[in-house]
Amino acid sequence: MSETHKYDAALAGEIEARWQDYWEAHGTYEAPNPSGDLAGDPETAARPTRFIMDMFPYPSGAGLHVGHPLGYIATDVYARFQRMTGRNVLHTLGFDAFGLPAEQYAVQTGTHPRVSTEANIATYRGQLRRLGLGYDQRRSFATIDPDYYRWTQWIFLQIFNSWYDAEAGRARPIGDLVAQFESGERATEDGRPWSELTAAERADVLGGHRLAYASDAPVNWCPGLGTVLANEEVTADGRSERGNFPVFTSRLRQWNMRITAYADRLVDDLDTVDWPEAIKLQQRNWIGRSEGARIDFHVGGPGAGAGEGAGAGGIVTVFTTRPDTLFGATYMVLAPEHHLVDAIVPAAWPEGTRPAWTGGHATPGDAVAAYRKQAAGKSDVERQADAREKTGVFTGAHAVNPVNGERVPVFIADYVLLGYGTGAIMAVPAHDSRDFAFARAFDLPIRCVVTPDDGRGTDPAEWTDAFVSATATVMDSAGEGVTLDGLPVPEAKARVTAWLEREGLGEGTINYRLRDWLFSRQRYWGEPFPIVYDEDGIAHPLPESMLPLELPEVDDYSPRTFDPEDADTQPETPLSRNEEWTHVTLDLGDGAGPRPYRRETNTMPNWAGSCWYHLRYLDPRNGDRLVDPEIERYWMGPRDGAPTGGVDLYVGGAEHAVLHLLYARFWQKVLFDLGHVSSAEPYHKLFNQGMIQAYVYRDARGFPVPAAEVEEGEGGAFTWRGEPVSRELGKIGKSLKNVVSPDEVFASYGADTLRLYEMAMGPLDMSRPWETRAVVGQYRLLQRLWRNVLDEATGEVTVTDDAPDEATLRATHKAVDGVRQDLEALRFNTAIAKITELNNHVTKLPAVPRVTAETLVLLIAPLAPHIAEELWQRLGHRESVTGAGFPVADPAYLVDETVTCVVQVRGKVRARLEVAPDIAEADLEALALAAPAIVDTLGGAAVRRVIVRAPKLVNIVPA
Known about the structure:
By secondary structure, the protein is α+β, with helices and mostly antiparallel strands. The protein folds into five domains: 1-30 and 782-894, Orthogonal Bundle (Isoleucyl-tRNA Synthetase, Domain 1), CATH 1.10.730; 31-143 and 608-688, 3-Layer(aba) Sandwich (Rossmann fold), CATH 3.40.50.620; 210-255 and 516-607, no CATH class; 290-511, Alpha-Beta Complex (Isoleucyl-tRNA Synthetase, domain 2); 899-958, Ubiquitin-like (UB roll), CATH 3.10.20.590. It is 32% helix and 17% strand. The chain has 29 helices and 31 strands. Strands 8, 9, 10, 11, 12, 13 and 14 form a seven-stranded mixed β-sheet that branches. Strands 22, 23, 24, 25, 26 and 27 form a six-stranded mixed β-sheet that branches. A four-stranded parallel β-sheet has the order 2-1-20-21, sandwiched between helices. Helix 22 (751-760) packs across helix 23 and helix 25 (828-843) packs antiparallel against helix 26. The radius of gyration is 35 Å and the shape is globular.
């Protein structure tokens, strides 16, 4: 028999390449927009829409391995299914191409990041095309395209030129705030008229309100990467999320995004989106909204009774969720970086200072300086580790407890972070474990003020840890003006907060764990900021006509690092070394004429471009605006079930819960407030796909060996070059030597087989192991489907025009119904199982009815589109299977032809009847009583009662 028409890898490759060319030439997956495209196509304009997205890929030099396409195949299957059910589907893919990997490669090789990145993108595009992914290629782009990052810079300017109006609960143009200052509606901090402020003073005032602002603040400095990192980019063990380098705290002037202004909305609007609860919980915890009170303590200076030689002193505000324990505060702690530390430190140690509090230093100033240097070398995570021994030094100053007038010593300690709360705490060691440990280490008083309800006594000297409870009662509140004795904690918190507010010593408030987003990077390969500085250091935005501000050429891509422990050193960015680009004369169109300026030489983080890419997919060639409002409303606007709008389906990894997803939500809300978009949320439905893993084989030293070279012996033993190796399941990666390229699978089986295998491996949201030997199962499914339609010897279609028999009709319609439900719910593995079952049924038929074969082809089309297109055409259809309607099940064939009815006499089964599912109770009773087995059992006895539960049960009770 000739093998010419047998479905094998060679034929699969030929078919797949031909149909990929066809789709590209005919624009098969191009989604029309409402502006222009649909003007003369009312039928398409009336269709419901589906906007389906994958998380941006970053194109690495190694190309794709078999783990990468899992989500891409899934969204492609879903998008194809939605098209076949009559929807206008937007599905495309771009590339997140700025960032560290390309820059680090440039540092090592001297290759310009754009050159290597564009080469990587070309590799990815080829592999993705080979998979048969149905993207609208007109809408694809990379974040490094100047036409794209022009609008990233434009969005930055919208944020820079905005402020958050807390009363209105939304962002407004900064010009509105300026108008309030000019009119006197809003007073300046020192009461001077706006007209009397200098330009620099006005800039400082507005900087305190802008949603994008520059500030001198403690930052996460990563010498290994040569840049600062946002809190979200630092791992739980205090290292960089990328590269696993140590991260230190330093103080630098950096750009920030005031994401904290949106904290409440970011929490509350989670209720409007269809996301996994685990992701919502992560965002809620990261934002960390908590209710409590802000309390003012007078610290240092004569008011605190610090004595001769005290520092200037001041007021330190603390935030606490337990104001009811204020009577138990026996000392205070400031973060080492707190701005008031220098102001409160006296020249000499006060009388009575304990030696253990001084750190062995002659003066408080010496002690504070030495401890600050020590703390700077630790990450925030290390500083807050509960198991670590608590360290600190006395500042030499005291504070006054506002509820009882007690003087309490003020320490600095690294377990208090400037970035959380106010950077200062009132320490209540009896009721906080970290305070308890610190108090024990420094022999500080521990006073119980909440009645223990766990059996312990009220003397902390007998305790091994603090007593913490939100349901106990308060005791020992001996002070003037407020009494809490015997009150439950919630009532005590309310009472002391009210007293503090009356006395002007504090107020009830809400605090957040979320910090403003650090938005600067000391790197080359990122979006330049559209900001210049005048001779007075005032930041000016570039006019839109000067966008995009493109990256200049540089000779050296490496940022020059600095010592985080040396306050006199600063990082040197690659852009700062291009003097011609950095120092420019510009006319900004503000009436000042041409003036000399200095450009911002930091770049934006790699997250910038991915904050808004969903919007550019909608209208990628628009040179006049970010996105046409009509187009944005059409694809993303609010609708039934999605009150805040957003993308219909967004698929990607759960690791971006508090990075990309939080940042994108913030940008979307700013754009929404400013009227640029109608959707307040970027992604309505989020689905986190699992991970494809692979076996890792290690030699006796624990080093990975090439997985492809490992041989399996009897009893599950594995060897490599004759030596035994161990096996474990892990990630796929070059370092683990277990990479399988999709190109290998294409060559052996074809792309449709790879698509089917990845979708059949298990539920999409679960991780699963890759098994190359198991791929053949899906290959055989396609071969059987091919043989059910064509003769392998001649290539002729073998289906008949005969009507299917009853069994085949029922099998077909059950498959149609099940596959429809499974594809809609992203249950691709069970959809494939149902298609396989139907295909196996058809294989056993003496002749395959055309209608059954066509249904099979339509069912598998979203999953294996190339073979489906080929068979559809050979079955006589001229249009693409993509435009064919997805089959609809006839409900009449979904009901079983008969069901088994159990007939009992006195509770014992005496007969079984095959009856129609919709049989009437009276008919079923008559059949049961007439059944020969029942007649014999009754033996002529009278029947007292018959209980009928149609169609499955009849229970007969004789007299």
